[in-house]
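Notes from hallway chat w/ T.B., transcribed later so I don't forget. T.B. wanted the structure written out for a chain they're using in a teaching module, and asked if we could keep both sequence and structure tokens in one place. Agreed to drop them here.
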Amino acid sequence: MVTIVDVAQLAGVSISTVSHVVNGTRPVADRTRERVLKAIEQTGYRQDTLARSLRRSRTDSIGLVVSDAGQPTFADMVRGVEYEAAQAGYTLLLAHSGEDPAQETRSVQALAARRVDGLIVAPAARSTGRETEAVQRSGTPVVILDRLGDPGFGDQVGVDNTTPMRELVEHLLGHGHRSIALAAGDLAVSTMAERHRGYMQALTAAGIEPDPELVITGSGLAAETRVLAHRMLSGERRPEVFACASTETAVGVMEAAAELGLRVPHDLRLAVFDGFPQSGLFEPRLTTVVQPAFDVGATAMALLLRRVNGDTCEDGQVIRLAPRVVYRASCGCDPR
């Protein structure tokens, strides 16, 4: 196997000079650097990253645990994390919890065993967070992503969920609607609970007594939401409007409406938190709360890097970025 010694001998330089070129730890004269790079190309030398990690007590890797990176919002957050990680020379190791606390624990343990330099976790529903807290106590920096919890935990990055949902429901009320249903999803997920809170606040402020019969909870998966929405939309007290707390619940509601022959927005008004990547292809176009998911991931990674690089400030930061509401035809707005 080609070693750094072989490269140094071929380039006619010291081993430390080759190391400085490879690792960027010290400036090297241009002509010397070119000789080293040519020698690396000729020998096919590849750095032993494991040995380098052991010497430096760092692996240049970051762990990330989310429930499902296939969901559009989480996918954008992952891209944001990975972009910032790559810019700083870190490799991202991604794991899925599948909304299962036990799987989250196994994922966190596996990443910690690989000695990641930092960890970002979007907690699963009903997660105790014990393993994540244990990793943090061991000295590995941790940032909570998206699903914010106890401010005392430490660094957390997400969005404001309550205010935009309240504004969305207030907008629907402004159209004269009073029977507004909510596909809330799993209220054990902090983001869903916060969006539910915004819905309740808007109704209460308008003098409308919230009706629990108009709120769909459960797993929040499309299949289950479809069944429950179908039952609600086919009943005698069919709501005029459906606000959906996620893309997954929106899919379930739209499937139920299609099965019943209900047209949006003629028979049913619809609005959704998050929306879809190709929203312009929907007809009618969907009124959507758009959250800056890429920026959330990038901000979480930037905050983690500060900790990895020695920021020992005891107080954790809780950062909430602001989504924006885009009003379109599905809620009854003029499509122009």
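Follow-up for T.B.: Residues 61-159+293-322 form a domain with the Rossmann fold fold (CATH 3.40.50.2300). Might be a good example for the class.
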